[in-house]
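Just scan my protein:

. . .
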Amino acid sequence: MKTTISLLLFWTLTACAFAQDAGGINRAEMKKVDWALGQWEGEGWVESQSGGKLTFTANAISKSKLDGVIHLLEGTSKFRREGVDSEVIINSHISILSYDPKAKCYRLRSYREDGTCGQDELKYQDHTFRWEKRDDERGVNQRFAMRLDEEGHLIYTGEISQDQTNWREFFHAVYRRVDKTAQ
């Protein structure tokens, strides 16, 4: 009986030590992307279904949570229809950015106002996130990049391809940090 209790205690302490180590790894990797924290405002355009461009304004806030283990992102994009005084929300989301130490990559889980959600695996290098996904509904591949430029602007772009060889931009936005203390 004493042996069983000793083994259970050993396994519990080992599991706790591993969990603390994983948290330390996560915090260290998330610290690398703290440049994205704060309140941001921007403008951009997205290709409409008819092939034209819709211009929009956007705002986002990114906060570090759980002692630096995740970043909580919340954002909204709006555009103004011709002849209408009010703006229309075209995208509203809450996302969680985290680091997966087993896969050695960042993960972005997003929840949108239309009830849809998704998860993406992000590659990170030189202040740039990159990720790709397949849009089966439209039969196209999409790839995205989000980077910090030399002036401190956040540049967010999206490209689309039907054959993964010929890519064209369908989305482009530039954000300015308006409040770093919102972290």
About this structure: Residues 2-31 form the longest helix (30 residues).
